[in-house]
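Form 7-S
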Amino acid sequence: MPDISTLVLFCTATLGLLLIPGPAVLYIVTRSVAQGRTAGLISVLGIHTGSLVHIAAAALGISALLSASATAFTIVKYVGVAYLLWLGVRKLMHKGGGEEAVELKVQSKRRLFWEGFVVNVLNPKTAIFFLALLPQFAQPSVGPVGPQILVFGLVWLLLGMASDGTYAMLASTLAGKIRSSARARRRLDVGSGIVYLGLAAWLTTEKA
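Output:
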């Protein structure tokens, strides 16, 4: 079991990352704007069911393996960087469709859940965290690493559901303004693009 000081540090780092909008948050916001609060919360449930895949992989030792291999770490890091750069440039280059209101396609609850699951399983932000950063908090001196990583993963899950749930609630409340305002949509695109590019730049500074 990790000690209290390590858990506090982990919670601080986790919240810092979770509050930065990534693919999962953008999916949740989009569905909340399109279909309302319930759809947003179902998306959150799907997203964090996907998180269980990352937690299981980390607890089984994949994270420790990549952390010990500079080559594997570098490959994972730069694939994530390239993907984030592509997303950021695409958002910054996206042109709005005028001032008319945008009606997004309505999807079934089952599809909302499974799309959320896939989004987070393939989410480079989540993968980088579990495969490269989370192992740094494990302390072999206090016991087996696997159970420690499992505890950290469950803490991530709880904090993630809380932060993403907040995004869903806020987005559904502001849905009308976002749908009807081209300026608001453009600001979301620019803000998201800048965040993606900033995260990509941050990842390039991480060392194996």
